[in-house]
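Reminder to self: tokens first, then the designed residues, so the page reads top to bottom the way the pipeline ran.
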């Protein structure tokens, strides 16, 4: 998301940095380009106009004109205003009140409500909550089966629903069942339509009145751009939304919906759906996203992903191996497996400041299949070979290639890359021994 906008803004700020002291004309010209970049990113016209006016009011004042680094000050102002535009502070789910607390998901058909309901349940379960999934979409009978199947995958209870049941009755019965069994969070997957119509909204309003959900969250498809904002406004007018979950953001290179949503409807984006996997739901952090738009990366999100994925005990074992300089191909394989759990490699590169701007990486599309081939090669080795790769001679390499369905050249490349990795790991271990490289709480 925001790939095009990020590239355009980088070009604008590169020009500013080359000018030294900035005149009002320089700033005006730069902001004109920023405005065009926002419009090309499908940002709402009024939102883009107001944003530029806010930045201009600050940029032509003493804050920039009297600064020793005016270009950097302009970038700082743009970052702060982008953060404000996106909502300022990171919004939290409101789970207060006497349990069970109801979370009502609404949206058009195809926006990803059912999958998002399961993602949200999995996330809440990991936080110690006891979620209860409710398939209340009888317009699409497959939705009941889909949510039931997803509930089994994440081991979360699903309310039994028949296609002939009335949605309001389903939700009321689910709240009673949750109360009697002891579930503290009820997630209502409501019906959608291809477009907003009277019967749909009447049904959703009836559920809201009878269940009194703590949160009414619109699930909106980011790839529909300004249509998503229009849909959000319509739902908000009739249901008084409390927040938005934007889905399919990994496929939206423009990002206009995310930048426009808060300003247009006055409700925060609470989560981003960043992939098809059931753990691909991220909390929305306005300041971090603003940094990513401006090419600053997002180290905090990268660390959080690592902390969620990497086992603490495994990190301690790895740290010990680094100190003892005993990092093997088995350890290398384990790190590959952990990396693949963290999600798309392309998304991970975007979180590292400056890395996605390197010319060597520009246009590169990291392929998880390459990591799987590496894992297959290591799996085809004997325990002795994984422990000491230097015993792997020509005949062993041919056997490993046959066993892994790869080529000898790929085996050679892996061993060469591992030798370099092992050398780097030994250097890290020696630095740690000298006290120059602490490992607080493990590798991450």
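Designed residues (444 positions):
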């Amino acid at each position: 998301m925001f790939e095009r906008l990020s590239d355009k803004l980088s070009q604008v700020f590169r020009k500013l940095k080359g000018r030294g002291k900035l005149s009002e004309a320089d700033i005006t010209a730069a902001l004109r380009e920023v405005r065009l970049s926002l419009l090309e990113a499908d940002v709402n016209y009024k939102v883009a106009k107001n944003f530029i006016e806010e930045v201009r009011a600050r940029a032509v004042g003493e804050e920039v004109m009297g600064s020793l680094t005016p270009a950097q000050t302009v970038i700082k102002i743009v970052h702060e205003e982008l953060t404000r535009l996106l909502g300022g502070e990171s919004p939290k789910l409101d789970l207060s009140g006497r349990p069970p607390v109801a979370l009502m998901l609404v949206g058009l058909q195809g926006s990803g409500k059912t999958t998002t309901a399961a993602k949200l349940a999995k996330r809440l379960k990991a936080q110690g909550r006891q979620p209860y999934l409710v398939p209340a979409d009888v317009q699409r009978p497959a939705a009941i089966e889909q949510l039931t199947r997803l509930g089994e995958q994440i081991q979360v209870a699903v309310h039994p629903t028949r296609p002939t049941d009335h949605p309001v009755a389903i939700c009321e019965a689910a709240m009673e069942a949750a109360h009697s069994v002891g579930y503290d969070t009820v997630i209502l997957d409501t019906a959608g339509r291809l477009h907003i119509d009277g019967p749909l909204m009447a049904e959703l309003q009836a559920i809201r009145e009878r269940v009194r959900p703590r949160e009414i969250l619109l699930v909106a498809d980011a790839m529909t751009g300004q249509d998503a904002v229009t849909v959000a406004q319509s739902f908000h007018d009739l249901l008084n939304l409390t927040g938005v979950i934007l889905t399919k953001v990994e496929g939206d290179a423009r990002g206009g919906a995310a930048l426009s949503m808060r300003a247009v409807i006055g409700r925060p984006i609470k989560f981003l759906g960043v992939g098809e996997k059931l753990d691909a739901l991220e909390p929305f952090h306005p300041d971090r996203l603003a940094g990513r738009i401006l090419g600053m990366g997002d180290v905090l999100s990268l660390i959080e992903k690592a902390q969620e994925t990497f086992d603490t005990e495994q990190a301690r074992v790895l740290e010990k191996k680094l100190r003892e300089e005993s990092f093997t191909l088995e350890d290398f394989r384990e790190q590959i497996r952990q990396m693949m759990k963290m999600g798309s490699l392309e998304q991970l590169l975007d979180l590292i400041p400056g890395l996605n701007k390197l010319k060597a990486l520009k246009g590169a599309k990291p392929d998880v299949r390459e990591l799987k081939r590496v894992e297959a090669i290591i799996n085809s080795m004997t325990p002795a070979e994984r422990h000491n790769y230097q015993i792997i001679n020509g005949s062993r390499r041919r056997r490993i290639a046959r066993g892994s369905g790869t080529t000898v050249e790929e085996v050679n490349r892996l061993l060469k890359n591992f030798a370099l990795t092992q050398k780097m790991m030994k250097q890290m271990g020696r630095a740690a021994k000298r006290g120059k490289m602490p490992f607080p709480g493990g590798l991450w």
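The CA atoms of residues 346 and 364 lie 8 Å apart.
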